[in-house]
Amino acid sequence: MRKKTSEVFSSISSLISSFSFFFLCLGLFFCTEMAMAQKRKTVPINVGVVLDMDNWTGKMGLSCISMALSDFYSSNHGSDYKTRLVLHTRDSKSNVVAAAAAVDLLKNVEVEAIIGPTSSMQADFIIGLGEKSQVPIISFSATSPSLSSFRSPYFIRATLSDSSQVQTISSIIQSFGWREVVPIYIDNQFGEGIIPFLADALEKINARTPYRSVIPEFATDDQITSELYKLMSMQTRVFVVHMTTSLGAKIFTKANELGMMSEEYVWIITDAMTGELTSMDSSAIESMHGVIGVKPHVPRNKRLENFTTRWKLKFQQENPTILNAELNVFGLWAYDSATALAMAVEKSRITGAPFEKLNISGNATDLETIGVSKDGPKLLQAILNTTFKGLSGDFQLVDGQLQSPAYQIINVIGNGAKGIGFWIRENGIVKKLNLRSGYSISKENFGSIIWPGDTTSVPKGWVIPTNGKKLKIGVPVKDGFSEFVKVTRDFTTNTTTVTGYCIDVFDAVMSELNYSVPYEFVPYAPPGAKTTESYDDLVRQVFLGNFDAVVGDATIRSNRLQYVDFTLPYTESGVTMMVPIKDNNRNKAWVFLKPLTWELWLTSFCFFVFIGFVIWVLEHRVNEEFRGPPSHQVGMIFWFSFASMVFAQKEKIVSNLARFVLIIWFLVVLILTSSYTASLTSTLTVENLQPTVTDIKELQKNKEYVGYQQGSFVKELLIKNNFDEDRLKQYNTSEECIDLLSKGSAKGGIAAAFDEIPYMKLLQATPYCSKYTMVGPMYKSDGFGFAFPIGSPLLHDVSKAVLSVTEGEKLVQIEKAWFGQPICSDSSTSLHSNSLGLDSFWGLFVIAGIAAIFALLIFLTTFMRDHWHIIRRSDPSFRGRIRILARNFDRKDYSSHTFKNNIELRDAVSGHMDCPQSPRDNLPPPQMNEPPNPEQIFPLPGEEGGNPPLHEAPPT
Questions:
Q1: Which UniProt keywords apply (predicted)?
Q2: Between 20 and 30 A from 544 (CA), which of 203, 646, 762, 809?
Q3: By the 8 A CB rule, do 134 and 376 touch?
Q4: Residue 942 has pLDDT above 50, yes or no
Q5: What proportions of the chain, in percent to the nearest 5, are helix, strand and coil?
Q6: Are 248 and 185 in contact (CB under 8 A)?
Q7: 847 assigned to some structural domain
Q8: How big is the chain by its Cα radius of gyration, in Å?
Q9: Domain-terminating residue out of 638, 658, 687
Q10: Nearest alpha carbon to residue 69 among 261, 332, 286, 343
Q11: pLDDT of 635-660, one tens digit each?
């Protein structure tokens, strides 16, 4: 019994143990499952999406956002992700609806971020709400530059600002040399935002915007047609179109109907339209044939191609009514924006905590009841620091804005587009991205372009207005100097004829243009006047719009450049002075002294005497011609030196040192006499044509009257240069100018006339030129030019044509036709016969002086060496030794070959010589290799302490 009981207890105990183990395992399993479930649990993060679902960008953007989140979480399925974005979509059909949708998302859903809205106008409303609630607003399509993170740090532009493409557009315009551009933009915040940046970029390349075409957002066909007609009436043919795709399609369709898509037109569209070309109607694209567009460059890769294929399938399934949908860059930016937000949410580890409510009274509005996100600041920093390789390229935000990549330049051809180049910030315009060198905007870097009108010729960018009006060219009305401009009125036929040198030059210049420009000349005189009193007033009429240009003898002046542009000058520049010529025939008695300055005369005289003295020193001991009484020797010094001037000296030179000196001196004399002769000839023939005045300071000092042409700027120039206004007299004609000059300042005339070189050269073709001459130019000026409005597209072409005319024979022929052949040559450069100065010959004198001194040094060295023993034995005093050297220098050098020949001749013929020229000449020559005769060392008879030598006979 006990045994059975124990067995029962044992069985029950085993059963209890088994149940205990089972329940323990079951508990452990449940605990593990609960832990795993807790670990796999993700935190939902509410995110708002505000897009215009009636807009193509909105539809495409929403589809790309959903695919981005799906791809992101599926690719990171095995990762330890704790967050997941939950999208709350709202349709924004207008600005008010978009704002209401944002308020609903922030107040009721308490979203941590908002993606959208689609347009810049809607974004402007929502940005303020995001800043108030500290919720990041991420837009992938709001491109207006007026929206920026500087206004609100919670605004993140995951797209490019419109301002980033203006440099690309300006580079295109600069490449082809267009000078005027008309922007055509939509009348809203999106359209206006780019204009200041575009204007600044055009200003940097010296292009101007003469007109801005603003198209209403909901413009009718009639409004668009009216505006296009206005553009057709202007001469500018370069248009930059910045507007939405729907409105842009209407404009190009109408422009094509009006013939504005033909030759000479240039159309450039911004990326707002370029990026959506694939979504436009085919007929609208065909009307844009030849249009140039810019768009951000998106690198092509397999990942992008794979996504594009998947997106088309998904979008077609969700929107079966939309056929042939094409993805553009805005869809890629929407995809990258959603990816960046998902990465930032996970990185910041936000928990989706409720908003912090503000203490508001019961009557608060919906805006006031919106709370403040606790996770907003942390999420904002995470988004700004997020970088990755997106579908559109590198995703990196700087100052809350996506960085600008390279821009691609496309050409719309048919119903498609082809790339013709790229623009890179560092390299400018390049044909291919991998071909980068230095910065360049050459049009050679573009591929082949088809322009409107199906032509490959580059349009010049402007034409004569289609209203058929001719250019009104203002010309001055003058009394005198009609050779430049002459206005002739025929009262019988009521016609006006304009002729003259300036008119012919302008006609020649316009004929050089490769296109026709109709124009007519309109004489200008202010009300109540018969002539043009002020050229400044005439030129100002161009600025006022009364004339399209001014042609005439209008000088290019700095003050006039403030309101007009001038072409290159077509005449000589400068203001010169005309004065009478004085007759110098009465002052020719001493004209022979004028060829040389007094310094040169004095230097020449001194050198003549010096060279004569050197020759005498070198020849005195060895040449009979240079001996004799002191007066004879002094006369010989002067005679020989000056006789060498005409090479008339008869004395024979026997010393080699003297010959060396004379060779150098003869060269100096030859050059000096030749120069003197040439200068004297010039002086005798030209000097009598000297002007009465050569310096304006002399006129000012003597208070002389001077003249200027009526209406010329020369008057202000003279007053500015300290001429008294009451000493200025005006003249109207060349005859009146000559009459004033002939009277002179003392007799009611003028001492000098100041005018521009073209007017003065006109007088060179008159008989008066023999009595008057030009001196100068005295002042600088830029010559005559044609005046055009500032920024005129004609200016560049006309300036090139001016160069073509002035460099050819055509201008010479026009000058001969109106001014004739000058009777008197321009003597302003040959009036002065300047005297020759020492600075022209000092090198010759230095050479001659060095040669003479060198010869003297050799002679003195040899002489001292030969007589050193005499100096050593003689009087110890310095003065005594000098006397002894002087006596020995005065004696003949019988060791010279000249005296040796004379002694031999004397001994052979008569045994004695003729009477000596001096007592010292009778001394016999010393014998070679014998000590000197003491009698020759001491003083001679008649000198202090001297006795006659024993062998010398008494004088007879």
A1: Disulfide bond, Glycoprotein, Ion channel, Ion transport, Ligand-gated ion channel, Membrane, Receptor, Signal, Transmembrane, Transmembrane helix, Transport
A2: 203
A3: yes
A4: no
A5: 45, 15, 40
A6: no
A7: no
A8: 53
A9: 687
A10: 343
A11: 777 777 667 666 555 667 777 887 88
Which of 196-210, 543-557, 678-692 has the lowest average pLDDT?
Answer: 678-692
For the stretch 905-913, contacts whose Cβ atoms lie closer than 8 Å and that sit 24 or more positions apart, written own/partner, are none
The 10 Å CB-count burial string (b at 16+, else e) for 485-523 is bbbeeeeeeeeeebebbbbbbbebbbebeeeeeebebbb
pLDDT at 16 over 60: no
Tokens found for residue 887: 């006596």
What whole-number percentage of the chain has pLDDT above 90?
28
In whole angstroms, give the CA distance from residue 503 to residue 416: 51
Residue 361, pLDDT score: 59
**Do residues 753 and 718 lie in contact, with contact meaning Cβ atoms separated by under 8 Å?**
no
Answer yes or no: do 667 and 792 share one domain: no
Q: In the beta sheet, which residues pair with residue 753?
A: 578, 707
The per-residue DSSP string of 505-516 comes to HHHHHHHTSSS-
Contacts of 533 by beta carbon, 8 Å cutoff, 6+ apart: 525, 526, 710, 711
281-321 per-position pLDDT tens digit: 888 899 999 999 999 999 888 999 999 999 999 988 888 88
pLDDT at 746: 83
User: 489-519 pLDDT, tens per residue?
Assistant: 888 888 889 999 999 999 999 998 877 788 9
Taking the C-alpha atoms of residue 512 and residue 516, their distance in angstroms, rounded to an integer, is 10
Give the three-class secondary structure for 420.
Answer: strand
Spatial CA neighbour of 126 closest among 216, 45, 44, 52? 52
| Average pLDDT estimate for 339-353 | 89
* 870 within a domain of the structure (yes/no): no
Q: Phi, psi (5° rounding) for residue 773?
A: -145, 155
* Residues 293 and 428 grouped into a single domain: yes
- Domain limits for position 246: 164-299+406-445
d(CA 765, CA 571): 17
In whole angstroms, give the CA distance from residue 48 to residue 87: 6
**pLDDT tens by residue, 529-551:** 888 888 889 999 999 989 999 99
| CA angle 12–15–19, rounded 5-degree value | 140
pLDDT at 703 over 80: yes
Average pLDDT value for residue range 574-596: 72
Any idea what the Cα angle at residue 862 is, between residues 857 and 866, rounded to 5°? 150
Reported pTM:
0.62
CATH code of residue 77: 3.40.50.2300
Count of Cβ atoms closer than 10 Å to residue 460 Cβ: 19
Answer yes or no: do 495 and 547 share one domain. Answer: yes
Q: Which of 789, 824, 859 is the last residue of a domain?
A: 824
666 assigned to some structural domain: yes
Q: Does pLDDT of 880 surpass 80? A: no
Q: Give the best-scoring range by mean pLDDT among 89-103, 117-131, 611-625.
A: 117-131
Note the Cα 515 to chain centre separation in Å.
29
The per-residue pLDDT for 830 is 43
Asked whether residue 655 falls in the same domain as residue 770, the answer is no
Residue-averaged pLDDT of the chain: 80
Please classify residue 733 by burial: count the beta carbons closer than 10 Å to its beta carbon, then call 0-12 exposed, 13-18 middle and 19+ buried: middle
Distance, in Å, from the CA atom of 78 to the CA atom of 399, rounded to the nearest integer, reads 34
Query: Strand 43-51's sheet: what is its strand order?
Result: 83-91, 43-51, 113-115, 137-139, 155-157, 401-402, 397-398
Give the Å distances, CA to CA, from 127 to 95, 97, 137: 12, 14, 7
d(CA 554, CA 502): 10
* Span 464-488, average pLDDT: 82
